[in-house]
Amino acid sequence: MISRFTRTFIFSCVCLLLIGTVFFLNPPIHLQWDADNNEWFNTDGVPHVPVDVDRHIASGHVIMGKLGNETAKAALGRATWKLLHTMTLRFPEHPTEDEREALRSYIHLTSRLYPCGECAEEFQTLLKAHPPQTSSRKTASQWLCYVHNLVNKRLRKDQFDCTKLDDTYDCGCGDDPSEKKGEHLIKGG
Ligand SMILES: Cc1cc2nc3c(=O)[nH]c(=O)nc-3n(C[C@H](O)[C@H](O)[C@H](O)COP(=O)(O)OP(=O)(O)OC[C@H]3O[C@@H](n4cnc5c(N)ncnc54)[C@H](O)[C@@H]3O)c2cc1C
Question: Among 35, 67, 95, 127, fewest CB within 10 Å belongs to which?
Answer without folding.
Answer: 35
